[in-house]
Amino acid sequence: METGFKRSSPSVEIIIKFACVRNKRKIHSMLLFKRAFSVSRRAFSANKKDFTIVSKQILNDPCFDIIRKDLTLSLPSIPKDPYTLSSDLNNLLKASKKLPPSHHSAIHNKLIEELAKYEFGIATIHSKFLETLGKPLTTEAFIEIIKNNPGRVNSSWELFTKYLDQFTELQDDILLCVLEKMVHFDAVDLADGKLDMTVEDICKSLILVEMISKKRLIPENIAITLVKNMLKQKVSFQLPSIIGLCKTPIFDLIEDLTELTSRQVYDVYKALPFDVVATNKEFLQKAVAIIGENLQIVLTEEEKENATSFKKIMEGLRLEYPKLNGSNPDYEILTAPIDTKTDFIDTLNELARTNLDTTDIHLAKNILRSIGVFRGDMTSFFQFYRLYISKFPDHSSDLTFETFLALSYQSYKTSNTTLAEYAEAFIGNCTEPDLHAKMLIVLILTKSKFNIDDSLDIYNKNIQSLSKEKNEAANLSSSDLVTESLILAYLSKQDVDFARVIFDGAVGEKVVEGLTAVRRIKNILSEYGEAVTKEDFESVMEDKILKVMQDI
Questions:
Q1: Which domain of life does the UniProt lineage start with (predicted)?
Q2: Fewest CB atoms within 10 A around its CB: which of 151, 279, 481, 517?
């Protein structure tokens, strides 16, 4: 690594060292000057001739007119580097005691505006002179300080809040500059390997976004980074305020749909027009399932913790810096459980408007599952069933199974034997091997509610005909899963001894094979051991059986 600049003249001595500063951060290429100046090599050419041109341009500025004669006398040659220019002018200003403070201020601000990008230490020196004079930074000088601040001594947010009260009005240019640093970080953070925004970074960024009057000026890359980090940090309840700033479809920003929580899917879904959601088939199916299957959408524990932190940070920032005005949303409402009844009806209407549910069998099955199993509205269920059976004649087996499942589920849940009898009328169409195995699982579990002997009888009549071939996804066979359901049925009746007999016999006869299948059943037995000591054992086991039916 290069540790210094090669200069054409040895008269300017620069000492360059590596150092570690502030919180033991390892700054890989910090440059220390004799007078604590830092060099930004990306902007400053080592060629003196180049900077001579820059010096001439700076010194030709009208703010120097009042000391033009003194300049001619004091600077017989044009300064050939930023440090020399700054030092010579500082000495000249110190000698010009009769010069009004306003002229001192204009020159110091000009030097910050022009030299911060070359040597940030120069900006620090001249800003201190301004503090001594009691004069404010110009907007341009402040922007250059924020833009070029490496973050070693003060973070860009700290500098922003330090000078906040100097400005009667925070222009969009200032807010945009600070926002850029909040989203893409100071150089010292990047050197430390920082990759993701924190919840606090997101809070500060959202305050800045809200204060920017012309939202169209916000670069899309900033909005994209914010969206990605809001999803990653699980604070997606604020997404609606940002998604509209992205021209890039949000689906392109989601790396893995399976990683999204139910609340995140809901927030993205609600933040977009339905016709936009409909362009992404995978997301639409997921959103329909989540809204349909959840009567209420609640935050995960991680989301609750981050929402609490978000609220605390936001309120603290508004209190500490009153100038950071803006709306104060009710975070209790934003993070409260969401009743999905109206959203589900609206979604069904949109699907009907676009004919998507009558052209996509996966959506049709999702809707039937949601209405019949999760919402228990059998009247509406059969209305949709009749519609879909006419639209998807090649998928009658799938639709028939959904009908059998809905009736069986509600039968078990409500202890209604009549519904169980209705369900059995749909068994004949579930002849495909995979559907047949699923049907047996549901039937065994449903029968256990009323007569466990019927469950055993169904198992004995069918187990030998079931496939023992493992599926690739779960490494389980139909034989494994049906046996597991019978064991669960007996455990729900607190007959753990017979459940173990079934397990041992199935393993011995190789009806159940493989580590995955054996481990799953052992886990069920272990969960039973924990549940049986509880007063609500019966409801715990019933909920477990209902969950198996929901997920089948």
A1: Eukaryota
A2: 279
